[in-house]
Amino acid sequence: MSSKPNFSGKWKLRKSEGWEDFLKEWDVGMLKRQAAKVVSSEHHITQNGDEMDVNVVATGQKGKHQQYTVGNNFTETEVNGEEAEVSTEWDGDTIKETHKTKSLTYTLIRELQDNDTMVLHLESPKGTKAKRIYKRM
Q1: What is the CA radius of gyration of the chain?
Q2: Sheet holding 41-48, edge to edge
Q3: Which of 10, 76, 113, 134 is the most exposed place for a label (fewest CB within 10 A)?
Q4: CA 111 distance to own-chain centroid
Q5: For 55-59, 68-72, 99-103, which range has the lowest pLDDT when averaged over its residues?
């Protein structure tokens, strides 16, 4: 069995694709969507095997802190303010998160494209896709 990728490091958002459409599907208002386009986001990750500690730092917005073991569930507050139950699992060399709120379910796949590039792939049940591309700091 191959070893799992290690996402540890500090990552800075460099590019978003489809993010505004993804937020629109959540009924996030235009002002918040406009703000979300200019927000700088960083992920500070410490990984020890399946144990993940993810600190999300965003300029002008409340960040979030996730601590979980891949294969287990956790809860968090989503960008639309709803509580989500999040299930996690390894899917090959990626971590797949399924986020379920009262109004929406979506998947987030965390992938290491190369040693200096982490990509978050988001997809809604309607097929709306977004990509958030982070570079190692």
Answers
A1: 14
A2: 64-69, 51-58, 41-48, 9-17, 129-136, 117-123, 105-114, 94-100, 83-91, 73-77
A3: 113
A4: 10
A5: 55-59
- The residues facing 83 across adjacent strands are 77
What amino acid is encoded at 78 in this protein? E
DSSP collapsed to 3 states, the chain: CCCCCCCCEEEEEEEEECHHHHHHHCCCCHHHHHHHHHCCEEEEEEEECCEEEEEEEECCCCCEEEEEEECEEEEEECCCCCEEEEEEEEECCEEEEEEECCCCEEEEEEEEEECCEEEEEEECCCCCEEEEEEEEC
* The residue to which tokens 């730092």 are assigned: 57
18-48 confidence digits (pLDDT tens): 988 888 887 778 877 777 777 789 999 999 9
Number of CB atoms found within 10 A of residue 120's CB? 20
Q: Which of 103, 102, 136, 105 is nearest to 119 (CA)?
A: 136
Q: Which pTM does this prediction carry?
A: 0.90
Give how far Cα 112 sits from Cα of 43, 67, 81, 117, Å.
Answer: 13, 19, 28, 6
